[in-house]
Amino acid sequence: MRLTKYKTKEAVHNRAMEAENIPFNELPIENMTGALQTLNSRSNKGGVGNFIEQHWFDLKADSSQLPDFEEAHVELKVTPVKKARKTLVAKERLILGIINYCNDFNLPFEQSHFWNKIQQMELMFYEHNKDVPKEQWKILKSILYTFPLAERKLIEEDWNTINTFVHEGHAHQISGSSTNVLEAARKGAGGDKDWRTQLIGEEKALQRAFALKNKFMTQIVQDFVLNDSRHESTVFTQKFEESQTNTFSDFINSLVDKYVGKSVKEIAQLLKLQNYNPASKSARTILIRAMLGITLDTKENQKEFEETNTDIRSVTFFDDGSLWESLPLPTFRFESLVKTSFEESHLYQQLEEQRYAFFVFQNPTETPKISKYDQRHLHQADLIFKGFTLWNFPAELIETAVKSAYESVQTILQEGIKLEPMINKDGTPKMQGKTNKISNNLLKESDNLYIHVRPHSQKAGYNYGNPNGNQLPTSAVWKNKHLLNNSEKYNDDWMTTQSFWINKSFLASEIKKANILNN
Q: Are 199 and 208 in contact (CB under 8 A)?
């Protein structure tokens, strides 16, 4: 047994609170010189955590599967927050320990070393501020955290999901987006040293760690650091806690299954939605939230999805089974992209961590055959709800095909993107209003099976100061620039802001694996 002077959870929590709002270098620590060396050690990524553990609690660093305070049954975690948009958010996910693919899953969840270690944690939050010397940082808040029933159910489901990947020899297919709040987060320095042997099979998997997701940790920060209490449980949460379903996906299906096969108009009538306009931009969002029992007038009821980093999306298929549109990802800045490795990129982070709750609609096949353009703009009330599925981008594709595509875009931008006015068959320039349509050699949907690059906005931006453009790292290489209207407005160093998109053909094939269109 690991013996410490803090033998009860009250003793641990009281000691943690004693450190609040005091600069680290003013804490009553006997060997402050040694403590500050621990804090500032460049070879020690966990400097603040080790500083608190070793010099405030007198804990010895180890990799034990037992809680730090074994007698009190409390695990200690010191974790950073940062300012963002006039509020505080978690700076990072909370790492709970490296996953051992060969030994971590020998017991059921409730008897596992993992759950035994983390079911009660002393969380100490400090503000990470690069403009202030580390010695002057402070513990803002300490809380003794236990998981409410809804969170415990999600964590158990996640642990079982990771367990299944490992026992089937598919640890290489795990990503952060495979789970709800407990993720298998990539952990390592990068390169060949990060690959680990699996329980079965010869294929190696990236080293990963159990971690609570960043969005989940941000919710704890919002509740306890800023507001001093847990947010009030919503009707949605209460239903989930009371449900007998085994997974979050099963729970959502239990809420929406009664609407499968019904039209948008019929569902709106069943839900008694007043003044519902099926042609409005927010129509499908309103319908989905109503089906889930989530009220429309507050952000509070979205927390369950925000905590699990799940993006609610409606997707619509044409009557022939093809998808209406590709899925947009956030925009990127050209200069930043060429300087950022794939593993550090926003694209990698998005695909690795983001999960989607797809609510699927389809044009009814029994309607008279009309063009796809008309299907998208007419008869919105007749769309049929086909069902729901959770989806995340396959991990093995992120590490291979998507990485290659990203690096190809880097190369094009570094060498100088090729731009040319688009031409009609009669030789005249193609126009959008009074603006030329411009082609480029960035990644197109036909070039890659999974992702492509194009703008979010319909508005072009090829000059300095245009809000729809951003600066190129290397001047563009123009062809037939003389065909442009007002060619002087097209600066060689600026181009319309672009985004990565997930290809609609790939997305359609992935959604169809859930057999939703057969409903």
A: no
Do 211 and 93 touch, CB atoms closer than 8 A?
yes
Q: Is 442 exposed, middle or buried (0-12, 13-18, 19+ CB in 10 A)?
A: middle
- Measured CA to CA, the distance from residue 102 to residue 242 in angstroms comes to 35
At position 259, the amino acid (one-letter code) is Y
446 CB-side CA count, 13 A: 1
User: 156: which 2 tokens?
Assistant: 């158990």
Distances (CA, A) of 340 to 192, 233, 333, 401: 19, 40, 11, 18
What are residue 449's DSSP bridge partners? none
Beta strand spans in 187-289 (E): 195-196, 205-206, 208-212
Give the Cα separation of 506 and 512 in Å (integer). Answer: 10
Instruction: Give yes or no for a contact between 306 and 315, defined as CB atoms under 8 angstroms apart.
Output: no
Residue 480 to residues 136, 353, 483, Cα–Cα distance (Å): 59, 42, 6
**Which phi and psi angles does 501 have, rounded to 5°?**
-130, 145
- Type of residue found at 113: H
CB-CB contact of 95 with 118 (8 Å): no
Q: How far apart are CA 339 and CA 333, in angstroms?
A: 10
Q: Which two tokens stand for residue 155?
A: 């964590």
- Measured at the alpha carbon of residue 461, what is the angle toward residues 458 and 466, in degrees to the nearest 5? 120
85: left (phi over 0), alpha (psi -120 to 50) or beta: left
455's tokens: 């703008």
Question: 28: which 2 tokens?
Answer: 């009553």
Partners of 80 in the β-ladder: 126
CB within 8 Å of 95: residues ≥ 6 apart: 185, 187, 209, 210, 211
Measured between alpha carbons, how far is 100 from 54 in angstroms, rounded to an integer? 25
Residue for token pair 């804090």: 39
What is the mean pLDDT for each group of 10 consecutive residues in the chain (519 residues)?
A: 82 97 95 92 79 93 84 95 91 92 81 93 96 95 94 94 90 88 83 78 86 92 85 78 90 95 96 91 90 68 72 91 92 96 93 93 77 76 94 91 95 97 91 89 92 90 91 96 88 95 96 91
Report DSSP state, residue 189.
S
Residue 8: closest CA among 117, 120, 141 = 120
Pairing of strands 139-146, 87-90: unpaired
Distance CA 472, CA 498 (A): 11
- 319: exposed, middle or buried (C-beta count within 10 Å: 0-12, 13-18, 19+)? middle
d(C-alpha 6, C-alpha 146), whole Å? 18
Model-level pTM? 0.84
